[in-house]
Amino acid sequence: MDWIYNVKDPIWETIVGSLMIFIVVIFLTRIVGLRSFAKFTAFDFASTIAIGSVISSILTSNTSIVHGAIAIASLLGLTWLFSVLQRRSPAINKLISNKPILLMEKDKILYDNLKKARIKESQLIAKLREANVLDFSEVEAVVLESTGDISVLHKGDGDLPLNWKLLEDVRRN
């Protein structure tokens, strides 16, 4: 029954450690900013996963709260640094940012772009259903965003036409 509960488990230390690391993460996020846990770039995403892993190590292994807090602060500091560099340097921005790609333009599925993005037609259609698209003729554009999310821009009865400036930075091929 040790796999369910072991009297040697540091239950109180885990509870106190959880509270302490929670406070540290909130404090550091207030300093660095909410972008800390956004997923604008692959680096942001990797940093968020790494911070989760560090928190897990703090709570379930021999990693001390101070050691874990320093690791989290380092990761958030790097995230902040890369966001500053990304804004200032087009080369770094290109290196760490994925450019969105158009998957559908109007009612036309762009099969070459689906292949580049490694997305199956059935996955695209599932996203159209999620967006309550009833017919391909309603679709203005479908974009695989740099975050990995899929945006479906569609019209309904009486909707405004799409402002194509919304797709200015989107790869078409």
From TrEMBL:
Pfam families, alphabetized: DUF421
Organism: Brumimicrobium aurantiacum
Main location: membrane
Transmembrane stretches, start-end: 12-33, 40-59, 65-85
PANTHER family registered for this protein in UniProt: UPF0702 TRANSMEMBRANE PROTEIN YCAP
Domain YetF C-terminal: 89-158
Signal sequence, start to end: none
Protein family membership: Belongs to the UPF0702 family.
Protein name: DUF421 domain-containing protein
Topology with respect to the bilayer: Multi-pass membrane protein
Source organism superkingdom: Bacteria
UniProtKB keywords: Cell membrane, Membrane, Transmembrane, Transmembrane helix
Compartment(s): Cell membrane
InterPro entries: DUF421, UPF0702_alpha/beta_dom_sf
Gene3D superfamilies: bsu07140 like domains
One GO cellular component, as annotated: plasma membrane
